[in-house]
Each structure stands twice: as structure tokens, then as C-alpha cells.
Amino acid sequence: MSFPAISNSFAYPVLVADIGGTNARFALVDGPDAPTRMCGKTATAGHPDISSAIRNAVLPGTNFTPRTAIIAVAGPVTGDVIPLTNAAWVIEPLKMIADLGLQQVVVLNDFEAQALALPAYSGNDVEQIGPGAIREATAKFVLGPGTGLGAAAMIHASDTWVPVPGEGGHVELGPVTPEDFEIWPHIERVGGRIGAEQLLSGTGLPRLARAVARHMRTERTFETPSSITAAAQDNDPVAVKTLEVFVRCLGRVAGDLALTVLARGGVYLTGGITPRITRFLTDGGFRAAFEAKAPHEALMAKIPTFIVRHPNPALEGLVAFAKMPDAFAVDMQGRHWRSAASQT
């Protein structure tokens, strides 16, 4: 069974982990004022479970035994047994406590972790796209086209940051421009609909490229997102047009989500695809689509948008939470497990 949190404090050292479909990344936090110690990454396929990965890839490099683990996973946290969407691991917090001698384990959604990083970004952590300025202590939004399309909001209320994970990446995505109306009939529907993630993701980008090729009446086969971005660098016309449509749609979705929470604190783009398409994100099409929200064009022009350049945004958010838990109102119900000894 899972146990409710007794307080917002954590027993140090805290091990933070970002568990992806391919790699798991780790860092250690020795105290609220201590520097973060990065522990590198390891392939999930190289270990039978997370406890094994920690024992073999993290603990040999440190003299400190973690007492708390805060973990970010792709997907909802719905019980004591948490299967990963894109990896063979199953996260069992109570088993981790027994295996590793931990006092407590917290499991959060991966984009919730990315939202936790948003308030502290500065300098080279981000690159702004277009106009707008951050209004302090206002809502922020993070959107990440990668394997899927992750999304989360960071709301500011009662002097506290409140991360709100969700499934905003599955909102409906329809045609707007005359060119869209010519391309959309060629897009394969999934579940009878065209959702944002079905185009704005690693699996969606080849689907969009096939539709663009049919629209352009040409034969072109792209199996992976990287093949499309590589072809666009060589100015392949189908690849270039695909990425132009991609960023235009990403701008529309980002604008819709910004309006939903009135994200005057900015919209932040992460995910594995984002850094590969900077040329297209900054050529004006993304911002034009982002701002085209009549009757609120003037409002949208004031909301800034950013590419996140920080190399480990989820880890950064988990570290911020580990060091300053009282700065965030994180829902711990059903996501915080304690050892029997720590209950007393």
C-alpha cells in the first residue's frame, strides 16, 4: 500500500532519477544548500529493474547512501506497481525501499518534473523565440515533442508554484490554412481522429511527411524523425515542407495551451525533436501561428516562447523540488511511499 506524506521535508541524501524509454539519468542532492552531483546515465535495457541500475550505475561512484528517491516517469502514477510506457522496467516503490534501504520514494510524471524546473531557468538555459516578456509570478507552460507530445502547466497561486501534469498533447489538431486543408485529407487517422501527438511527435513526424508527399504528388519515404530533419538540412522539398507544417501546428497547439492557463510566464519547448528544428522554429512560422488567436492577438504577442537548452530539464526540476519542497505544492497523494520505520 502507499502512504500519505507526513511533511514536505525529505531525508538527505536524495537520489533523483529521470527514467526514459532508452536511458535513465541520475543525480544526488546531499542537502538543501549542497551542489548537485550528477551521476550520469545508464541504458534501461542494461538492467533488469531500477534497483539494479542504482546499485550498479550510481552507488559505486559515491560514498553516500541515498535515503530518499524522487523519480520522474513517462505516464501517470496510479498505484504501487508502475509500468513504464516505453521501457521494460516496472517501478515498485515499496520494493525499492526494501532493496536499497530507502526511507521514502516519490514518483512524479516526467513533464511534471519539467514544469518544476521552469521558475529557475535563466541565461543559457533557454533561447527565446520572437517577442514577449515574462511576467513574474504568473502561469508557465511546457510542451515537448519527443517520443510523444508531453505537456504540463506551472501555476502560481498563493505565493506557491503548483505543477499540473496533464495530457494536453492529445488535443484535437485540425486544418487552418488553405495548405492545411489540402494536406489533411492525406493524414492517417488514429482512433478516428487527428490529435496533436499523432503529428507532433517522433511517431507523428513520418506520418505527417507521408501526407505532405502525397499532397506534393511525389514519392518519398521517411521512416524516422532524424531522417526527415537530416533531409531538411539538405533542402529536400518534402522534408522542408513537412517541418514548416510541423512548426506551424506546434505553434497553434502551444498558443491554445497558453490561452488555456493564460501563460504570461512563458511557453517552453523541450523534447528530443525541438533542438533539431531550431531553424524552422525561429523563421517566423511558429510565432505567427502561436499569435494568430483572434480576438487575442495582442495578448498572445506579449507571451514569450522559449526553446529549453538545459541538457537535463527533468532532473533540474526534481533537484529544485528536492532542495526546496516547500516552494512547490506537489500533489503527493498516492505518489509518496515510506518505509515502516520512517512512519514512526
TrEMBL record:
It is found in: Cytoplasm. Coiled coil: none annotated. It comes from the Bacteria. One of its GO terms (cellular component) is cytosol. ATP binds at A17, D18, I19, G20, G21, T22. One of its GO terms (molecular function) is D-glucose binding. It catalyses: D-glucose + ATP = D-glucose 6-phosphate + ADP + H(+). It is an enzyme of class 2 (transferase). Keywords: ATP-binding, Cytoplasm, Glycolysis, Kinase, Nucleotide-binding, Transferase. Belongs to the bacterial glucokinase family. This is Glucokinase.
